[in-house]
Amino acid sequence: MKPKKGITVMLVDDEPHILQFLELGLAFEGFEIITAQDGESAIRLADACKPQIIILDVMMPGIDGFEACRRIKENHHAGIIMLTAKDDVEDRVKGLTLGADDYLVKPFSFDELLARIMARLRNQFPHLLGEVIEGPFRLDNSRKEIRYQKQVLELSPTEYELLTFLVLNKGIVLSKTIILDKVWGYSFGGEDNIVEVYIRSLRDKLGDKEHKLIRTLRGAGYRLDLP
Predict the structure, then answer these.
(1) CB half-sphere exposure, 7, CA atoms < 13 A
(2) Listed GO cellular component terms (predicted)?
(3) CA gap 24, 44 in Å, rounded
(4) What is 63-113 written as a DSSP string?
């Protein structure tokens, strides 16, 4: 994957060890990192540095994450991923209502956070990503085009989003619930077997007859394995 030069991520958390862990990992991935330990500093830094992505903890002294999110979104187009210590629907709804774009429950895996950051960048700042190359896949978000083994795939918009999500989360088991949330959206009210239908279509177009590329893990979900 190409370095992410020119993409700034702001980390906001009052726990120094979490800031250090995320800063090291995201800097290694090529992002420019700025940090804040409270809501007031986060609002000031957002004004000064205009980050594309903000990782914002909910529970902080002074101005909490909810209020910081609301005030930042009044003036900035940044993608905000909120961190919460509990999987509380009420907190989730509140954050999304105030302008948050996504959420993660602590503890979380770094790979999942990175995947969510990339999803926000694809949705809000695709011009910053250019082409992404993962094994035999070449993803060009500006053209909404995916090449597999140098051949352009004929994909519907939903197939494009699903395959992109699978490729950028290569090696990670993705449940139907996660796929529905991230590809179809939180408001999707249909049956979850729609995921099976689209996975089957992608396998046909990729020539994956033996399911070695997109694997099914019974009771868990799907995982894309690169050669």
Answers:
(1) 25
(2) cytosol; protein-DNA complex
(3) 23
(4) S-HHHHHHHHHHH---EEEEEESS--HHHHHHHHHTT--EEEESS--HHHH
Write the CATH number of the domain with boundaries 130-224: 1.10.10.10
83-129: per-residue pLDDT in tens?
987 666 777 777 778 888 998 888 888 988 998 998 888 778 876 77
Task: Give me the chain's average pLDDT, please.
Answer: 88
As a whole number of angstroms, the distance between CA 195 and CA 201 comes to 10
* Angstrom distances, CA of residue 125 to CA of 52, 211, 226: 8, 33, 26
Rg over CA atoms, the chain: 18
The fourth-level CATH superfamily of domain 8-126 is Response regulator (3.40.50.2300)
- Can you tell me whether residue 137 is helix, strand or coil? strand
Dist CA 218 CA 15 (whole Å):
38
Question: 152, 146 in Cβ contact below 8 A?
Answer: yes
CB 65 within 8 A of CB 39: yes
Span(s) in the chain for CATH 1.10.10.10: 130-224
